[in-house]
Design goal:
The protein has 190 residues and is of the alpha+beta class. It has 5 helices and 7 strands; from the N terminus they run E-H-H-H-E-E-E-H-E-H-E-E. A 7-stranded mixed beta sheet has the order 1-2-3-4-5-7-6, sandwiched between helices.
């Protein structure tokens, strides 16, 4: 299996990974860290998908998609930290003033997991951030050790996967997700 990771500019493919089965459902659409809280709370049902469609149209794309042939099988959200709520997050520190990019969500479709797609997504997100001029990229994965993680909360990624991609521990955080502490991992792209 060859996985190809591309910028997420095709909305229908993003919808396949992030969209709800029912168009009126209020699912995340990977907006909860991308937009201010007030906007996130105001966007309901189909308005959430419309917002993401606009991101795909206007660019830069809101992340990257992994494809197995023509089938979208994975998603990673990546953007300049300044354009996300991580710019103001009190639980996740800023290591320095470098205009880093954030990688905060890695998702693989059911039926395609355990095939290395999350590793391809991390590498693809790094390549995308680098192509956009990012001097460094950060992630805020779970530091779960050997403990199992509920798949619905594994979207933040796992520390070990980021270490395998060359990220290094840059700081501890006070953020906890699914009972596991999150750590700030960073990869210098300069």
């Amino acid at each position: 299996m060859t996985i190809d990771v591309r910028p997420a500019s095709v909305f229908e493919d993003v919808r396949t990974l992030l969209g709800p089965k029912s168009p009126t459902s209020n699912v995340c659409w990977c907006l909860s860290y991308r937009v201010p809280s007030k906007v996130n709370n105001e966007l309901r049902g189909p308005a959430r998908g419309a917002y993401v469609a606009e991101l795909c149209r206007t660019g830069p794309p809101p992340g990257v998609l992994a494809y197995d042939g023509d089938e979208p099988v994975g998603w990673a959200a990546v953007a300049p930290r300044a354009d996300t709520s991580f710019a103001r997050n009190r639980k996740i520190p800023h290591v320095d003033d470098l205009p880093v990019w954030s990688l905060w969500c890695v998702r693989v479709r059911p039926g395609h997991r355990k095939k290395g797609i999350s590793h391809s997504l991390i590498a693809g997100a790094v390549d995308f951030a680098r192509s956009q001029g990012a001097p460094a990229i950060e992630a805020y994965p779970l530091d779960n050790g050997d403990a199992r993680v509920d798949l619905t909360m594994a979207y933040a990624g796992l520390r070990g996967n980021f270490e395998r991609a060359g990220f290094v521990h840059a700081a501890d955080t006070t953020s906890v997700l699914a009972g596991h502490p999150r750590v700030l991992m960073r990869l210098d792209l300069r």
